[in-house]
Specification:
Blueprint lengths: L1 E5 L4 H13 L4 E3 L11 H14 L4 E6 L3 H7 L7 E3 L3 H9 L5 E5 L5 H13 L6 H16 L4
Parallel strand pairs: 1-2, 1-3, 3-5, 4-5
Helix pairs in contact: 1-5, 2-3, 4-5
Length: about 150
């Protein structure tokens, strides 16, 4: 399952990405925004998508806001989330190959619709390399998640 969410800044592009994904046979669950509201907050929809991802370890999420930074920061607060803010397909490919990203953050104001489709398609179709150095690095992140104290 692919969970997708955006605020008003990414709303139009999110709707087009959903159509693109469905046309290409992907199962998609829209977590909002469901209507354009210039006063909404990305956190409300991002959290909803990430809570779904917590229950679906094989799932992925795509999050959009104007610059992609806010949704990326928020996503990476969740355990076992590896969110990557990508703006081209080469970067998206490396985020999956090297870092096994499971969340794609997109900067709606900085990419075209065609670029968004290329980025999403590349990201979804790139496997994790499973090389020893990448596994080791991700293990260190996992260890930090287990021992970090937020007080």
């Amino acid at each position: 399952m692919i969970y997708i969410a955006s605020d008003h800044g990414g709303f139009d592009l999110k709707e087009r990405i959903i159509d693109f994904l469905k046309q290409n046979g992907y199962e998609v669950e829209d977590k909002g925004a469901f209507v354009f509201d210039s006063t909404d907050d990305y956190s409300d929809f991002t959290i909803s998508a990430l809570k779904e991802l917590e229950e679906d370890p094989n799932g992925k999420a795509i999050l959009l806001c104007r610059n992609g930074v806010g949704v990326s920061i928020l996503a990476n607060k969740f355990k076992d989330v590896r969110a990557a803010l990508s703006w081209n397909k080469v970067h998206a490919r490396t985020s999956r190959n090297d870092d096994n990203s499971n969340v794609l953050a997109l900067p709606a104001d900085f990419i075209s619709e065609k670029d968004a489709f290329d980025i999403v398609e590349t990201w979804l179709n790139t496997p994790f390399s499973n090389t020893e150095r990448h596994i080791r690095r991700l293990g260190k992140i996992g260890n930090l998640e287990e021992t970090a104290r937020y007080e």
